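#help-structures
NK: newbie question, is this the right format to request a structure? protein is CBM11 domain-containing protein
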Amino acid sequence: MERRALLALGGSALATTLAGCSSLGDADSTTPRGSTTNSEQTTPRTPSASLRNGSFESDWQGWTVGRRLPDDPNEPGTRPVASEAGVSTRYASDGETSLRVFIDGSQDDGTVWVEQPVDLSQYDYLAVDYQVSTSFNEILQAAVYTGPEPESGLEERQFDRSHSLAGHDAAGWKTFVYDVTHDADGIVAVGFNIVWETGAVGFLDNVRLTNATPTTVSPTTTPTTESSGTRSETSMERTR
């Protein structure tokens, strides 16, 4: 059974979403502590010297879930579109777990992420492993932020969405590297933004801060011999 912690969306709303998305698996654990919604973060947080639990091996330790979501078109002004964040054992690029995010794209808009406060003064790079696709139909975007913590919480426009999850030569884990330019206490936020009118699931893993060029992974297509009678297989390549 896949183990994950769910971001609660409010009773019947979450149950309805999961019933219509059988590919997500069964929910079997609790809401992560410190989850935020479209309101600002009100609890003071002390930045740590290094990023904690970057591969989600300790469930939600160190992380807070955040969301910026439009209204559900079926109940405008009542609730946002459905979303979900969980620690998953289905895929992993490092260790045995990764972060899984689901967003209902009914409004072709919405961002869900996890964040934690960190002293960024010792780091030059943030690296995140995302699952990428060969499809050219962009549904989800990688959404990443490093910098000072906004008083009213992060907004969608503040995320770096320059790295595409679609249109790659092979499907699998790929490292995206971002420059860290904030030289003081701040936050690291990693997640997804949806840009298509459908529900979609994305995975990310191995979030790390470095002061040197980080090690990266990328999917490569390895052709098999004709005599094997099988198609090409996808492997993961590590580079520096």
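mod (FA): yep, format's fine, and the tokens are attached above. Confidence is low (pLDDT under 50) at residues 1-42, 224-240.
NK: thank you!
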